[in-house]
Every structure is written in structure tokens, then in C-alpha cells.
Amino acid sequence: MSSRTSGSDSSGYWYGPDDARIGSVDVLNLLRRYRAADQEMRRRTRDSMGMGETDLLALRYVLRAEREGEMLTPGVLAKLLGISTASTTVLIDRLARSGHLVRRPHPSDRRSLVVGSTTGSDAEVRATLGRMHQAMIEVADGLAPDELAVVARFLAGMIEAMELVETHAHDPAGEGPTTDGPATDGSGHDDAAGHPSGAGGESGPTGG
After folding, report:
1. Which letter, b or e, does each residue of 123-144 get, where b requires 16 or more Cβ atoms within 10 Å of its Cβ?
2. Dist CA 76 CA 46 (whole Å)
3. Which residues contact 130 (CB under 8 A, 6 or more apart)?
4. How many CA atoms lie within 13 A of 179 on its CB side?
5. Number of Cβ atoms within 10 Å of the Cβ of 203
6. What is the pLDDT of residues 101-118, one digit of tens each?
């Protein structure tokens, strides 16, 4: 066997702790750790900026629209956030008071408004996340073109796999799970392939 790809092989049972080869379960566990690090980064960002999760997400949508040269109305923002227009109004009011967002007249529709960011909010986001973004760019820039293609294909496949999860109605009889999804390790993070070990026979969930 020339490569280590199966769940049993990547458990570390067939290979010693010094074996450098990485199997599919090891890669999935690294992806799980990345997701956990991403969630922790978002928590630190919210704490640093004094925002709730939805507030920060709204600001990100506004900044992205501005970068792409698009105009974001309160109605469109409500759809992106998946909340009611009334809740969006309250959210915009709150972020306007904190100096992060402003309402501007729509340039072509007098009945509508556009939600925009302030200079201060853009600078705050850059100061908070700029170093991290630069480090991530440097990691990506360090890959060869063929390596980038492999990573892109892998991530696209992971996105498609995530989209396979369907939400099912609650089972009143209690005869089984109501959703199809990855197993968890008890801490809210999925344990890749339900496997207890990663590379080198390391036991227990890591990075969660």
C-alpha cells in the first residue's frame, strides 16, 4: 500500500509516531481545528469591537457590498441576515448610534435608503483583522499553482458535502435523530469520521 488514505490506516495503528504520512482523517481533523479556530477568532473580534454576532455579520455584509461597488438596502440586508425588517431596523439603529453604520438616500430611488459604513468602522475592522488576513494571504501565496488547485478542489468538495445535510422535522415518537450531520465530540465540534485518533496515533479530539 503506497498511501495512507483509509480511516484505519490514519489511526496510527499501522504506523509509528514518527511516520510523516498524513491520511484523510488527519486532514479532516485539521479542517475541524481550523473551523474551531475560526469560531474563536470571531468571538474575539466580537468582544474587541463590542458587537453581537449578528451586528458583526451585518457590518461585514455592508463592507463587502461597498468593496464590490454594490448598494445595500435595509431590505436586502434583512434577507442576507435572515431576520425580519423590523429587527434589521433596530440593528441598523444600534450600529448607527455606535458610529459603525449610516443611512444614506438611495441615488435612484427616493423611497429607499442605502446602508453604508463609516470611515471609522472600516478602519476598526482593518485594525482588528488586518494582521490575520495578511498572514492568511502569505500562507496561500506560499503554495505552488498546482498545490492551490488541489486545495481549491478539496475545499469546494467540502462545501458540497456540507450542503448535503438536510433538516428533518422533529420526530415526536423519539424513534431516531431528526437531522443528518456529522458526529460531534461532545463539545459542539464535529469529530472527523468519528475517529478517536489523528496522525502519529494521537488519541482524543484535538483543537476543539
Report:
1. ebbeeebeeeeeeeeeeeeeee
2. 23
3. none
4. 10
5. 10
6. 999 998 888 888 999 988
